[in-house]
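Before surveying the methods themselves, let us examine one representative protein, written as a sequence plus integers encoding its fold.
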Amino acid sequence: MKVIDFAIEMEMRERDLYKELAQNAEQKGVRTIYARMAEDEEGIVRNLREMASTISDVDSLALESVRSPLDRNFDRERALKIDDGLQAYRFLMGMEKAMRDFYTKAARRESDPRARDLLLSVAAQEEKELHELETLYEFVNAPNEYLAWAEFSNLDEFYNFGRYEDNRGVRPPN
């Protein structure tokens, strides 16, 4: 099985999955997240096709012995019922981690160094996608983990309200 041809097929399947989820998700924001992910996958397909035109694709026996995450049963209904952007990003990060791990595992099993390098290159692309999703997730989740309240910008005022004594019993040294 040719490495780049296989990677193109997988990215196209991911794109189609995300398009389906975008069309059928219940919540508008989640539909938008899935639609943008489908667009990203389309860009990756274009990049892989350009790569295929500049280098010679090689066969990989390891790809035939490793099962793709897209072939495993995942709960499509659960993915469609996601109603929160954070949950959608977590779902997508899980998909990208699974794809990265898939290519990495195939590369470890591959005996041909050229095929191994191509598999690792595709895994690196999946890692880049994962990193981008993690960055988006952190940005969207930031309000849940950050307190920006002017009243408590001065910790001494915070201590004046008895919070430190109530929670720890001793005020910090000045």
